[in-house]
Amino acid sequence: MQHLGIDGHPGALSGCVIDEAGEQREGAMPADQRGLGRIAPTPGSDAGVYECIELRSGVVWVRDQLAAGGWGIRLADAAR
Questions:
Q1: pTM above 0.70, yes or no
Q2: Confidence of residue 50 (pLDDT cuts 50, 70, 90)
Q3: Any long-range contacts for 60-64 (C-beta under 8 Å, 24+ apart)?
Q4: Where do the domains of the chain lie, and which CATH numbers do they carry?
């Protein structure tokens, strides 16, 4: 099972991935398709994958792309 956390802003994404072996990878990247692919590769069809994202207006495309790629999405409310 992989876990992915993303904080999305209109100009940049910050993310952290914890893979099946417990290895952690973090980084900041541009808020575009290429940047998203660096932190959130498409999971394998047999892998359990979960994603939690906090998104500001203008980066909802991140949620859409991750869901289309097979990630299970959980949205975080920054106010809570």
A1: no
A2: low
A3: 62/6, 62/8, 62/13, 62/31, 62/36
A4: 2-75 (3.30.420.40)
